[in-house]
Design goal:
alpha/beta, 2 domains
Length: about 180
């Protein structure tokens, strides 16, 4: 954060110099709009996941996908829970690969939610919710059908895999398995 104040200071000085050269208020407003528009557009297009923003030098969020962390706070689990709440039958078993407590906050009360810590005590899973963080979506039930993807642009934040997701008698991989 130590670099941001000088960057903003220099940007302000440059903007002030540009305003002095552009004497008309219409041109000044146009310049200000031109400067602010990319940031506003990024915020609108990423909502409510604005914090996953990456600049154009990396290719935006699409360029950062699978190269850098995106949804490290797990905010997309709210949208995932809304989807599962809508499609899952009563008392369905949900395996959450990632921060299960975030998913559980928004899940219906009748759903049986299991985290990686509880893999041994679950009888099987009807649905799997997996974040793309740490490539959990690729490593968790890799052969299961993906029913729903939470994405911004081409970057996928979380996936929900379907009812045949884990009928494997061995169950899900244990915490720490690297397959």
């Amino acid at each position: 954060f130590f670099i941001l104040p000088p960057v903003f200071l220099l940007a302000g000085v440059a903007l002030e110099a540009a305003f002095r050269r552009l004497r008309g208020p219409i041109l000044q407003v146009a310049l200000l709009a031109l400067v602010l528009l990319p940031g506003v557009w990024a915020g609108v297009s990423l909502h409510p996941y604005e914090y996953i923003y990456y600049n154009r030098f990396i290719g935006g969020v699409d360029g950062a996908f699978r190269r850098f962390e995106l949804d490290y706070w797990g905010i997309s689990y709210r949208e995932a829970a809304r989807y599962v709440n809508r499609v899952a039958p009563e008392k369905a078993s949900i395996w959450v690969a990632g921060p299960a407590h975030l998913f559980q906050t928004y899940a219906r009360g009748d759903l049986r939610i299991y985290s990686a810590y509880e893999a041994d005590r679950a009888p099987g899973y009807d649905y799997v919710v997996a974040t793309t963080r740490y490539d959990l979506d690729l490593r968790t039930a890799p052969d299961a059908e993906t029913l729903y993807r939470i994405r911004r642009g081409e970057a996928v934040l979380t996936v929900i895999k379907g009812p045949t997701a884990l009928r494997d008698p061995e169950g899900p991989p244990k915490r720490g398995d690297d397959e």
